[in-house]
Amino acid sequence: MDLSKIKTLIDFVGQSNITELAVTEKDTTVRIFRTRPSSESASPSSSSHVPAIDTSSTASTFTEILSPDTASVPVHAPIFGVLHAAPAPGENVFIRLGDTVEAGQTLFIIEAMKVFNTIVAPRAGRILHIAAIDGSEVEAGEMLAEIV
């Protein structure tokens, strides 16, 4: 699927009332979704939401099924883009090796096509491994970190 089609889909989701759209063409699936702010974190600056995009091969899954006895949970990049470990240049990074995180806590930001996608912790735990490097390009499906 070419970038102009993806941009058209992003614009469509951004201008409509739908919250999620998945389109498959050949062996590529593009999933675009818009998140709504929670009532506690809603602020004037967060009232406009840019749709996020998740692309993956149809052979891979969007979510990982974990058993209760799983020792660690990998955090994978949902899309291709430039990884940002901090909210802005010169600021402290979101996480460091050994940090304890809560479910839903921001771990990284991936910038793709001028859209900033927040990567959050899938569960509470301790950061066991950080594989991603700030400012580097990451591939969809690439492991960014590991939580135990």
TrEMBL record:
<dbReference type="Pfam" id="PF00364">
    <property type="entry name" value="Biotin_lipoyl"/>
</dbReference>
<dbReference type="InterPro" id="IPR001249">
    <property type="entry name" value="AcCoA_biotinCC"/>
</dbReference>
<keyword id="KW-0092">Biotin</keyword>
<keyword id="KW-0276">Fatty acid metabolism</keyword>
<comment type="function">
    <text>This protein is a component of the acetyl coenzyme A carboxylase complex; first, biotin carboxylase catalyzes the carboxylation of the carrier protein and then the transcarboxylase transfers the carboxyl group to form malonyl-CoA.</text>
</comment>
<feature type="region of interest" description="Disordered">
    <location>
        <begin position="35"/>
        <end position="55"/>
    </location>
</feature>
<feature type="domain" description="Lipoyl-binding">
    <location>
        <begin position="72"/>
        <end position="148"/>
    </location>
</feature>
<dbReference type="InterPro" id="IPR001882">
    <property type="entry name" value="Biotin_BS"/>
</dbReference>
<protein>
    <recommendedName>
        <fullName>Biotin carboxyl carrier protein of acetyl-CoA carboxylase</fullName>
    </recommendedName>
</protein>
<keyword id="KW-0275">Fatty acid biosynthesis</keyword>
<keyword id="KW-0444">Lipid biosynthesis</keyword>
<comment type="pathway">
    <text>Lipid metabolism; fatty acid biosynthesis.</text>
</comment>
<keyword id="KW-0443">Lipid metabolism</keyword>
<dbReference type="InterPro" id="IPR011053">
    <property type="entry name" value="Single_hybrid_motif"/>
</dbReference>
<feature type="compositionally biased region" description="Low complexity">
    <location>
        <begin position="38"/>
        <end position="48"/>
    </location>
</feature>
<dbReference type="InterPro" id="IPR050709">
    <property type="entry name" value="Biotin_Carboxyl_Carrier/Decarb"/>
</dbReference>
<dbReference type="InterPro" id="IPR000089">
    <property type="entry name" value="Biotin_lipoyl"/>
</dbReference>
